[in-house]
Please model this.
Amino acid sequence: MSKEIDYISQRKRLAKKLSRKFRIMGLFPINKKKVVFSSFEGDGGFCCNPRYIAEELHRQRPDIKIVWLTRKDAEEFPEYVSVKKYTDWSIAYHLATAKVWVDNYRKPFGTIKRKKQIYIQTWHASIGFKAVGLYRGEKFPEIARIVSEADSSLADFFLSNSKYCNDVYPKKLLYRGSTLMTGSPRVDCMINRDPVLMDNVRRRIGVNNEDKLIMFAPTFRGGNQKGKKEVISEIPSIDFERLLGNLQKKYGGNWKVLLRLHPQLSAKMEKMPILQDGERYIDVSQEPDISELLMCCDMVITDYSSCAFDAAFAHIPVLLYADDVQEYIENRGKFMWKRNELPFDIAENNEELEKNLQSFSLESYLKDVNGFMKKHVVLEDGHASERVVEEIISYLS
Model:
C-alpha cells in the first residue's frame, strides 16, 4: 500500500509541474484553425480513430492546421501533418493553443483545457471483452481511477458506436458527459474497402493479391497483470503450422499469417516472438495502423482484443484463441460478456481451434454478428469519420 501511495504522490507532483507549463502556454492565443491529435499516449503513430478523422478533416478542409503529438518518426505521417515531439513543453504549448483536441487515450495527468477549447475523446475501442474502469472492481488501480477521472472531466464528447457503449461509459470510462453517436472512424476503411488503398497496403507488407491472409493480434497485457502470457517475451502457444494446414484444407489458396503486437508493445519490441519463420509469416507489428491491415484480411484470430468486434462489424470472419482465460480474469477482472452472448467461437487450445475452424460457417457467423449489432443498436456504416469532421468543422466556425 505504501508503494502505491508513494507512486500516486509522485504522479501528483509531476502533474503539478505539467499544469504550470500549461498555465504559461495559456498566455499564447488559441489558433482557431488548429487541431491537435495524439494516440496511445504518444506511442501510437498515424493510427486508430484519430488517423481517419485527420484524413477526412484534411480532405474537407485542407486549410486547417493538423498537429500530431508523438514519439514516432515524422516519416510515418503524411506531409500535411505537422509532427511534434511528445514532451511536456510541446504537449503544453500545442494543446494550449489549439481549438480542438482529438485523442484515443488519456491525456497526461495535469493537462489543463482552456475555455472555448473542444476535446473529442475517440477512445481506442468501442465494444470490447475486457473489464475496464470500475468494472474491474478492486483490480482497478487508484492511480488509474484518478487519471481517468481527470481526463474524462476535460472531454466535451466521447465517440460512440452503440447504445451499449452509451450505457457502459459511466462505469467503464468514468464519463457521464455527452456522446456523439458517429460509429468508429477506424472501421470505415474496413467497410469501404478502397481497392487502391488495399493494393498499396498489400504491396507494402509484401503479399500478392492472390494470397489469403489471417491475422493473429493478441491484446495488450500490462499494468498489474501477471497472466501466464505476457506477450512481450513469451512465445504464443498457437500452432500456426497446424492452423495454416487447416485453412488450406478448408478454403484452398496460399495462406499467410500476419503477426501483430499491440501498439504499446510494438513501441518496446520489434516483433512478436514465434518459433516459425519464413515467407508464410509476416510480422506487421511496426505497421502504424491495424485497421488498414484488417481491411486486407480474410480472417482474424485474437484473444481479448476489441479488434475482433471491429472486424466483425465489417463482416470479416473472427475466431477467438484464449489459452489463459482463468489467469487473465484473476489478474484483470471478469469479462464484459458471457460466452453465449458473443458472435464468436472461443478456443482455449489448438484442438478446439481446429474444431472451430472446421465447423465455421460464414452464413451462420454473419447472422450472429448482425443479430448482435441489432440487439445493441450498433452503428457502423463506413461514414463515422465524416460525422466527426462535421462536428469539428462546426466548432472551428
